[in-house]
Amino acid sequence: MKPNRKQMKLVESVFAVPPRANIKFADIEKLVISIGATKFEGSGSQVGFVMPSGLKWEAHWPHPQKEAKKYHIESLRDFLSKLEISDE
CATH number, domain at 76? Predict the structure, then answer.
C-alpha cells in the first residue's frame, strides 16, 4: 500500500528538524498501517507494528495527551528510513 496525501504530509512532519510536537499518535498508527504493517498490542499501553519483511516498530501510547513524544518521532523516522520512505 501507499500513503495518501495527508499521510505524506505526516511523513514530512516526521522528518522535520526539530521534530514537531503536534503529531497525533493515532495519525502515526494510520500511516504505519497504510504502508503495510500489521498492528499488535502488548501489555498496558504498548503497541507495535510489524512489516511483512519482519521489521518492527514498537512504542507506548502517550497518555494522558494524544500527541507523540519526541522519542516516538525519532524512532519512527528510523523505522521509515529503513523502509526507504522519506519526505523527498
Answer: 3.30.920
Q: What are phi and psi of 5, to 5 degrees?
A: -60, -45
31 is a domain residue: yes
**Residue-range definition of the domain harbouring residue 30:** 5-82
Q: Residue 46: which H helix or E strand, with range?
A: strand 46-50
What are the cell numbers at 42? 502488548
What is the rounded distance in angstroms from the CA atom of residue 15 to the CA atom of residue 2?
18
Query: What is the model's pTM?
Result: 0.87
Q: How far is CA 31 from CA 21, 28, 44, in A?
A: 17, 5, 22
Angstrom distance (rounded) from CA 60 to CA 82:
20
pLDDT tens-digit profile of 3-45?
678 888 999 999 998 888 899 999 999 999 999 999 999 888 8
Residue 79 has, within 13 A of its CA and on its CB side, a CA count of: 26
